[in-house]
Amino acid sequence: CVCFVVLEQCMCHRLKGDELVCEWVAFSTTKGLLSLSLENLEQFEHEVKDYTILHSSRWFLGLRNFAEEDEENLLDSYSTPAKGSQKRALSTPENPQSKRSTARLTSPGLLSPATFSPCATPSQKYSGRGSRGEVVSTFGTVQGPRWSVPKGRRSASVDQLMSTEDSLLSSYKFMFQRLRDVRDVLSENIDGLGEELRLHFNIEEFSPVSLPAQDKVTVLGQVCCDSNGKLNAQSVLLEAGQEHGGRQVPVDLSELNEFSLFPGQVVIMEGMNTTGNKLVASKLYEVSSEPVMVMTVCGPYTPSDSLAYDPLIDLINVINRDRPDVCILFGPFVDSKHEQIEKCQVTETFESIFNRCVDSLVEGTREIGSKLVFVPSQRDVHHHYVYPQPPFTIPDLSKKDVERVTLVSDPCTLLVDGVTFGLTSTDILLHMGAEMISSAVGSDRFSRIMKHLLTQRSYYPLYPPAEEVNMDYEKFQSYGHMPINPDVLVVPSELRYFIKARGTVL
To answer: Can you give the residue ranges of the DNA polymerase alpha subunit B N-terminal domain (predicted)?
Structure first.
């Protein structure tokens, strides 16, 4: 009888009547409103059993972790902390030579190091550095390393390229994406970019990647690796989109004179696949990539050994001296990798430190009227740790300052007086350089990486992403691609600085 079976399940799993009813309603709803029968109750019992086992194991695991943590704290109290070497994070260059000049600021009280943190002490390494304001890299014919804009010059306009509906303007829930949603985004990216490439190369149609054929075939897919290791010439797989079956096939690159591939790259290949089990590629289709005074600056804005914002103070002096139309400031502003922040050696909130940075920049440049663009970073400890990253929120700006300050997401495409700027603070150069394989001759690695970014129409085409990047692919589909090739692409990196031109893109 159904009643006896229900009663038995309540006793076996220690459930109350109302709890069992809730479990049954949830179970039957997911299965399409099943009827209450003995067969369905048997299936229901298995799921309830698995559910109770899972939650009981999590409960015991939590107790075990709690006990181990108490034991470690007890042992640590009887020992002396060891001094271990720590890896230094990216910071301001330190070259001790000349003495530090006096900051030329209109409001020194607001911008002094003590206003950022009471425990901050001036950095000796930073104050003794040399080569202040030195131009380290130039492009084209330069008459002199310094330039300035006349006082009477009109102010530049700063606009986001995408409309308000298409821009990332607020926070959103993340960590809820499903694997099938990731698959759909990647498949749509393959099909969308593949259609553009098909029209560009006048290709009639693509063949399925795993279909045996005795003649040469042209296939479209995404590059991936056959294991969790680093991609190499023997581990390349080509995965088709859902429109072409979604199958994977190994790729033999031995017949290609040169190639440059990375995981996640959408490519068109031509070759032989006589068995359907391996594509011997003979051709890789390559797409050839088709001034306002703007200053770009990248954080962190503190020395590595202090939380005193002396570099930020000097930056404001440089802005006042050079008077750029637009100053684009990349995070991190409150660096999560700073030693004192990692050890929680601050006496105020991270948001308070960030607000002081913004107030200093806005007030310190108010007289010259330069437009300020703030780009967040995933290393900003006070901001959302996700990519794409929503813009900062600065609620206390005056009406005049709001007209001068632009808050953008990471990444974003910005239009500055008709010149398109592509901006991202995430270190895609370092991440892609660590994963990319290439046999190209006559071109450097940075040029190849920049070519990939532009031809893939994406600010972060690498898949899987680096471990430090918390990628949300549903939002990435909307906010992570380049709507057009920018005139200027700015990508801060831990790698050595450079200025290069790729086609029409600087």
So the answer is: 6-48
